[in-house]
Fold this sequence. Notes:
Elements: H1 23-26, E1 46-49, H2 54-57, H3 65-78, E2 82-86, H4 92-103, E3 112-118, H5 121-130, E4 136-144, H6 147-153, H7 158-179, E5 185-193, H8 200-214, E6 222-228, H9 235-248, E7 255-261, H10 268-277, E8 282-285, H11 299-307, H12 320-331, E9 348-349, H13 352-371, E10 398-399, H14 409-420, H15 426-443, H16 449-460, E11 475-486, E12 491-500, E13 503-511, H17 514-524, E14 529-538, E15 547-555, E16 558-566, H18 569-585
Parallel strand pairs: 1-8, 2-3, 3-4, 4-5, 5-6, 6-7, 7-8, 9-10
Antiparallel strand pairs: 11-12, 12-13, 14-15, 15-16
Helix pairs in contact: 3-12, 5-7, 7-8, 9-10, 14-15, 14-16, 15-16, 17-18
Amino acid sequence: MRTQPRISAQQPSNMPVAKYRPFLETNPVSLPDRQWPNNRITRAPRWLSTDLRDGNQALIEPMDPKRKREMFDLLVRMGYKEIEIGFPAASQTDYDFVRSLIDDEAVPEDVTVSVLTQSRTEIIHRTVEALEGFHRANVHLYNATAPVFRDIVFRNDKASTIDLAVTGTREVMDHAEKILGDDTIFGFQYSPEIFVDTELDFALEISEAVMDIWQPDEDREIILNLPATVERATPNIYADQIEWMSRNLSRREYIALSVHPHNDRGTGVATAELAIMAGADRVEGCLLGQGERTGNVDLITLGLNMFSQGVDPEIDLSNIDEVRRTVEHCTQMPTPPRQPYVGDLVYTSFSGSHQDAIKKGFEARAKKVKAAGGDENAVPWELPYLPIDPHDVGRDYEAVVRVNSQSGKGGVSYLMQTAHNLDLPRRLQIEFSQVVKRHTDTFGGEIDAKSLWTVFADEYLPASFAEGLTPWGEFSLDRAKIVSHDEDNDSVRLAIDVHRNGEAVHVDASGNGPVDAFVNGMNDLGVDVRILDYAEHAMGQGGDAKAAAYIEAVVEGQIVWGVGIHPSITQSTILAVLSAMNRALR
Length: 586
């Protein structure tokens, strides 16, 4: 037998590495007695959600007021007590949204709203005026302090940069004193933007100058936010910077030291965690990590990382599927299937050895829980490959079983794709696998491709797609015809004829497309329908190929999937909406 010799180092690449410098050459940190590596995270920091500012401004299609409100309400339900609600001086739309939260009495008294402003008098005035009537409100002032911005972007020296921060702070205080009454508990936040690239002694100097104006004390907190605006070094260097600032700031006991990590190097979560160990009191980020470029730090991952270590995140993360659906709806951005804790595949094992280990882990845990009198919390969570119990966040463990299993989601979806050209979305796979399980539990035996199609068609499709099935459903479609299309306003008017419990019904409806118009028509008929997710594909090639459409919808408060198949993709989508309605209403 010949053994493998030690492999030599890889050969140098042809990439232009000489044009880049190590971060510490230009941003040295002297902290030889650093303490943060010995610290542990034992409690959650204060959280600030920037979903309605950073997360919104980074979207391909920024949220409209309705979706902004849905996001705000989600954040409140989850328990976030500090929420940045926008940049009210940026546009009338942003200003009106901020005011709508007051008009609708949408903000609980224990929630602090925050708004962002640059250090310009007219912007500061508009920003402060937007806060009139809020019970708790912060103004967040920022200006760029890093040399590359001072020298290239703004052509400011250090003195004028400090003057900008100091003048802005004084202007915020003076205008807040004039506009906001005693009913508003007013707070102030300052960010030396691009902190990571700012000389530490200058970041300290400008922060002290701002505090000299604000004069923090026991009843007058200041939030100093030290953002990793562009993540440019390993997380340990940011932790050194945070610990250095925490040690050297005066009036430290009156400061909420805040961090705002981005994810440019893919280590935003680690950066935030090490910053907490280094003394940060507060973390800013977004649900699912929205934000410019690679995003802000993901607050859900941070919270569940703490939860997995027995630390209460002080945020309700017990239904992450609802959180994900709402965030996806509001941002119009998909969630990667491998997203930590939240993605479709994170509680799924494809490997047989993994499945076997997890199966044995569940069996061993069940015995321990039984011995503990059935108390789940009395038995520490220790299972192979599963860092947390999926049930704690509203999910299940899903093993993708072999194709010859009678009830495995993997086998079911494989047969539907290979035998029937239906590529079911993953959440529909989960739902349909439960339908199959009920069938096999009732009738027993394995289920082949033909039987699987019968079960699928009986559950999701009109009887015409499977001979011998009994028609079902409150609604059936006669026609849905476009009668006008206003291209300037992207509006479609639809003439809809359906049968409802055998009775012909006609309705005219409009929307920003045929499907939106059809949904509006169903709402006009008294059926509460809202689309959550949509997918479609061709079932073959050629001019006679059918299209399959899949709709996840909320119908009368129930989340259900519907399926439509038709040569026209528009008609197949409308049929999918009817399928979801019929399934929810039967």
